[in-house]
Write a structure and sequence with these properties.
Length: about 290
């Protein structure tokens, strides 16, 4: 978490902290920077793919080794993780994340949800973990992880969650941090992206309507899925991702949910505009 400063900078005269809508510096009208940690940037199989002899899967470059896609966001007072796939435990240990105030889900696919059981250490320290997702996703998770969601005859070692339904066009707050859901389609499946201050995270997107695009225009930092160069039925390819970026006009963009067939990290980066970057596991940025 970011530490509070007890000394007012020269430019500030009063406490302008406005907790109703956004996180602000205590002494000036500027929003505090978010810390963004890319926990995983790979597609559903990760990289390397089990048993693959593809050159990218055999790469010695650490940036070509990708766990399943997830991101950890720290605001002034809140620790938020988006998605927890099969690599969640490893990601938490590597990143040294010690607290989760909210676990946000984009959708129910296994590469985004299969690590839910590993919230146990957080539950033992914090109590019920706040989970946010579409009603459909909450229902799906409650079937697959019924022992986590049930309240009666609960196994003593099982974690518990507090379920929160995410509804499009209804923002919500994690502590005093506002989260705005962004509605999109993953093929025919509805998925949610999220905007927190000037940071927008979207993954597994194939189509998104203009109303939702308007919610994220002119953000500072955009993270968007970009599977490969060839077209795909349910994911943006490179051409589609770059077109979407041109519509949104963020100051900077990071590509995630990368397939091994896209190529080597450094070679992909050379093909991109100057303000578009290939994200990689354990990359940390401020937004």
């Amino acid at each position: 978490m970011f530490s509070d400063s007890l000394t007012s900078p020269v430019c500030c005269k009063v406490n302008h902290f406005e907790k109703k809508y956004h996180i602000y510096c205590y002494f000036c009208k500027k929003k505090k920077a978010l810390k963004i940690y890319f926990l995983g940037t790979g597609t559903s199989q990760g990289i390397p793919v089990i048993g693959s002899k593809h050159s990218v899967c055999l790469s010695s470059d650490s940036k070509d080794k990708r766990l399943r896609v997830s991101v950890w966001i720290e605001t002034e007072e809140a620790s938020i993780v988006i998605d927890c796939g099969p690599d969640f435990r490893q990601q938490m240990l590597t990143s040294k994340c010690e607290r989760i105030d909210a676990l946000l889900f984009t959708h129910e696919h296994a590469d985004h949800t299969a690590g839910l059981d590993d919230i146990r250490p957080f539950y033992f320290q914090q109590g019920d973990i706040e989970v946010y997702a579409h009603q459909r996703v909450l229902k799906n998770l409650s079937k697959r992880f019924d022992y986590i969601f049930e309240n009666e005859n609960k196994y003593p070692g099982a974690p518990s969650v507090s379920s929160n339904e995410v509804v499009n066009s209804q923002s919500f707050f994690v502590k005093n941090t506002e989260v705005i859901p962004i509605d999109a389609l993953h093929g025919n499946l509805q998925v949610f992206g999220y905007r927190i201050q000037d940071f927008v995270y979207l993954t597994d997107v194939k189509t998104i309507n203009q109303t939702e695009i308007d919610k994220i225009k002119n953000c500072k930092t955009l993270v968007i899925n970009c599977l490969r160069e060839e077209p795909h039925a349910t994911h943006f390819n490179l051409e589609e991702a770059l077109h979407f970026i041109s519509l949104v006009q963020p100051k900077e963009t990071y590509l995630t949910h990368i397939s091994h067939v896209f190529g080597f990290h450094e070679e992909i980066q050379q093909k991109l505009p100057k303000n578009v970057f290939v994200a990689y596991d354990n990359l940390i940025i401020n937004s």
